Amino acid sequence: MLLAEQPWPTIDGLSRDTPVVIPIAAVEQHGHHLPVFTDSMLLGEIVRRIEAELSGQVLITPLQWLGNSHHHMDFPGTLSAAPRTYLDLIDGLMEAMLLHGFTRILLFNGHGGNDVPAKQVTFEVRQRHRDRSDLLLLSATYWSLGARPWEGRGDLEQHAMGHACEWETSMMLRIAPQLVGDYAACETIEPGNPFLPASRGWITKDLSAIGHIGSPQLASAEKGEHLLAAFTSDAAAMLGRMRHWDGVSWEG
Questions:
Q1: Long-range contacts of 246-252, Cβ-Cβ distance < 8 Å, separation of 24 or more
Q2: What pTM, to 2 d.p., does this model score?
Q3: What CATH number does domain 3-156+229-243 carry, 3.20.70.20, 3.50.50.60, 3.40.50.10310, 3.30.2010.30?
Q4: What is the pLDDT of residues 88-104, one digit of tens each?
Q5: 24: which strand partners?
């Protein structure tokens, strides 16, 4: 069920155990060949598929397109909220649904730069409501829910999400090919080893002068459908676990 399309009495009539999905994405550069709305479009497509599969079983808020994208600000067209502002923004979205009585909330992320803030907010909100034992507060990034899409397609070269890469370019070829530029002319830009296992502070231009990271030239619409189906399946499974949570257990 899409929250944006309902009158408030319909929302008020839902069980407060209904999982609430808050999609969070971004508007930021995606190399020379993909539009700046790529993250929001891809997450929006996965959310659309989830809603079609789980109609009436989950409540989905409007997608939040403003993300934490400061590392892309060297590229015109990127829009970004400062990190603390962004934390407060998604904190407020989660608190609004708690105020309305909902107890099972998923911050569902479609942009790498939102991953750490979403985890931090989920942790902070739980501490603020530490006297409650009925809350299930989660954050998850759609490509990190367990899918190993390369195992189902031997022609997928990448085994991890990049940026405007084989994966994202393939999915965009599937849902909006008219917006995809000359990806075939791109060259592979490897993410490298930035002092792993430490976590290095970085901006996109440290890795890529033109904005993409990975191998967009390997993309295809067929790969894109395979990826979208895998990520949708993962998300639906997680929401199923949320729906069937007994309201008390640590595990689910």
A1: 247/17, 247/103, 247/134, 248/133, 252/136
A2: 0.96
A3: 3.40.50.10310
A4: 999 999 999 999 999 99
A5: 64, 109
